[in-house]
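Task card 7
Instruction: Convert sequence to structure tokens.
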Amino acid sequence: MDQPTALDRRQFLLRSGAGAVMAAPLLSCSRSEPEPVVRPAGVPIGPFGAESTAEEVTAGIDLTGKLALVTGATSGLGLETARVLAQRGASVIVAGRSLGKAETACRELGMDTQPLALELEQGESIVTAAQSVLALERPIDILVCNAGIMALPQLEQVGGIEKQFAVNHLGHFMLVNRLLPAVEAAAQGRIVIVSSLGYRWAPEAGIEFDNLSGERDYEPNRMYGQSKLANALFSLELARRFRESGSTATANALHPGVINTNLGRHFDAWKRVAASLIGWTFMKSIEEGAATSCYLATAPALSTVSGYYFEDCNPVVPTPGKHMDDLAMAQRLWDVSRELCTEYLV
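Output:
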């Protein structure tokens, strides 16, 4: 008898009584109810899908001589992304919240890796990290913005800004802008931004520019959704700017899937237990979760694809009405982000 696929197992779980009760909160960032998948016109559709792994989507690709940087690369999806890029020959900068954690990850990986201390909630740390990378005087071929935090149970702020927005969006906004000269110096630099299907949790108005402090009606998932919408809009505006300037660099955003990693460390205890016990029935493995990032970072077919949103290694049109294609909001987000981060930008 054929073994059930991950999709079969997930649908079985969703249709079973107790399993559905336990799984529902954990699936809230996945397509728990199947929706028609709409593909954007003119973007190549690859042979990979939800069960493809990072190794599978990069098979046969030689990254020798290329430089990659992965944020949040000391565990989970970031570590696997760094491992596979290094396995394919790239020199990989492993960025972690402390130099010690980054060094430990590099020792674990072996290969051609180097550690970098990067604390995304601290502007000074971002500036120092970017200066260290630019001092290498090498083009950055691949920049994967993977690090993030999720569903902080209570309001926390960084410099008066809600922490999830500050870390997930503003931290990467500062880093990318600092490193843009090196990315654009590459023959075909790629910026890959890990967003999330959680963009659907964002406020109805999209980015609440009058509530970036999070003090009005704070709700963990809502603010996480706003930060993930910001990630996607950032990639959209980056892509527009690359096109207008004639740059060969690209920027795309993605949803990696639902994976049991440290990202869920702020969930209620029972959710974490449920994920450990039954998560295998409907969640992606870490190897599968890193596949879309690695595909966007390396696939030859995507060398000119920019400004799109990907799930399961393929482009999709995001849920209508959720501001993911709002060019005006993306430009305003860029302008407001610059104002908030002025002292840490070039």
